[in-house]
Design a protein that fits this description.
Blueprint (H helix, E strand, L loop, with lengths): L1 H23 L4 H29 L4 H8 L6 H4 L2 E4 L20 E2 L5 E2 L1 H6 L3 E8 L2 E7 L9 E2 L3 H16 L15 H5 L8 H5 L16 H7 L3 H6 L16 H14 L3 H10 L8 E4 L14 E3 L1 H12 L3 E2 L2 E2 L3 H7 L10 E3 L4 E3 L6 E5 L3 E6 L4 E7 L7 H13 L2
Antiparallel strand pairs: 1-7, 2-3, 4-5, 4-15, 6-8, 7-8, 9-10, 11-12, 12-13, 13-14, 14-15
Helix pairs in contact: 1-2, 2-3, 6-11, 6-12
């Protein structure tokens, strides 16, 4: 980041210098060299000062994090503090399937033939798993340790939060999906009485009517809801832009507000609630974690940041493939699984949207959790297939057709 800042500062300064030279007829090589040296020195000093301030203020400033960390990437699991989510004593066993790996070569969406392994190797994929009938049909990793370590999920976390909402409604910890958000966060009324019309249902379906601007780093809503060191304050600063229920708009204020409502209603951190009512009961085999905004605030990054092993992401998909039941226990209510994964509104993307789950339009009945940079848990309940893809995202065609192709191949008789 320091090098980039220096180069940017130098480029701007040199551009100005060139313009001045053309206008004023600056002459003499020595004079020009001195001027260039001065500009570069100023750029280095300025970038060093900015970088130093950002390093000091990183735990309390959104701007500092944007300057220091730049765009989000999978390494953010190391940058944010995290709250542990422990596994239970009984794990759902996922043995290797008999008969060896299926043939997953075939036409890619860009028209070339290639093995799945070649696609994964060329796309910065870190881990790829396919379950069929509760066994591992295919597994691939960029390095031996990638299948055992925790990976961050970005917005796949929203699908976990959706499951927690369904659990909380069934347990009576949340009252009703049509409760106004002000039932749980009454201070929003003091800012704008229109919040009384915004319900939990509006929030989980991304039809809340809240303002959300994706462009304009480092002050965009995308950056603020991701990097803010105080996400409670950030969530409560949300603004009503239009009546709720009229338009679908992907918006990270929505999960922040719902997560805060769950925290208030249950009297415990969302990660603790997840450990008790989802992670342990679903048969996770390893401890997970949920990244938090900062040590001082300690609120889970409810729009992202569930960190788990590939096999445990697959177990989550398996749970939803079986209508919320695993190991003889109904972990997530079956009606919530059906309701949350059913399309509620069409989107500009090739997938319909439910309650923080997406549905593959090309294969009705299949649904997926998806996150930035190509994090996926793709679920086909009909053929009992779950596909998990984790990693960066480099030069790859649309992932959903590829995941669909894999599920078709593995799930076919």
């Amino acid at each position: 980041m320091l090098t980039a800042a220096v180069l940017l500062g130098a480029a701007v300064a040199l551009g100005l210098l060139a313009a001045l030279t053309a206008v004023r007829g600056l002459r003499g090589r020595r004079r020009l060299v001195r001027a260039v040296a001065a500009v570069l020195a100023l750029a280095v000093v300025s970038a060093t000062v900015v970088y130093g301030w950002a390093a000091i203020a990183v735990d309390r400033s959104t701007l500092a994090r944007t300057v220091l960390w730049g765009s989000a990437d999978t390494g953010d699991i190391e940058r944010f503090e995290e709250r542990p989510i422990r596994a239970g004593a009984q794990a759902l066993r996922l043995p290797r399937c008999q008969g060896g790996d299926p043939d997953l070569s075939g036409d890619r969406v860009d028209g070339r033939r290639s093995s799945l392994a070649a696609v994964l190797e060329g796309s910065d994929t870190e881990a790829f798993l396919v379950l069929r009938d509760r066994c591992v049909a295919y597994r691939w990793s960029a390095s031996p340790g990638d299948l055992a370590r925790r990976h961050t999920s970005f917005s796949v976390a929203k699908s976990f939060l959706s499951a927690l909402v369904g659990i909380a409604l069934a347990r009576g910890d949340l009252g009703d999906l049509d409760d106004p958000i002000t039932t749980y966060l009454p201070e929003l009324v003091d800012r704008d009485r229109r919040f009384e019309r915004v319900t939990l249902r509006h929030l989980v379906s991304m039809r809340s009517g809240l303002r959300y601007e994706e462009a304009g780093l480092p002050w965009s809503d995308d950056a603020v809801t991701y990097y803010s060191p105080d996400l409670r304050e950030t969530a409560l600063s949300a603004e009503v832009a239009e009546p709720p229920g009229e338009r679908w708009h992907y918006n990270n204020y929505n999960p922040l507000l719902v997560g805060m409502a769950l925290e208030r209603a249950t009297g415990m951190p969302v990660s603790d609630y997840m450990q008790r009512h989802l992670w342990k009961p679903m048969g996770a085999s390893s401890a997970a974690s949920w990244s938090v905004d900062s040590p001082a605030s300690g609120l889970e990054k409810l729009e992202s940041g569930v960190n788990a092993t590939p096999l445990d992401f697959a177990r989550f998909g398996y749970l939803f493939a079986h209508e919320g039941e695993v190991l003889g226990e109904q972990v997530v209510p079956a009606d919530w699984v059906r309701t949350s994964t059913r399309p509620r509104s069409e989107t500009p993307l090739p997938e319909d949207f439910g309650y923080w789950w997406w549905q593959d339009r090309a294969r009705p009945g299949r649904f997926l959790a998806r996150g930035n940079l190509g994090q996926f848990v793709y679920v086909d309940p009909r053929s009992d297939v779950v596909v998990v893809r984790l990693g960066q995202d480099f030069g790859t065609p649309d992932w959903v057709p590829l995941l669909r192709h894999v599920a078709d191949a593995v799930g076919s008789p």
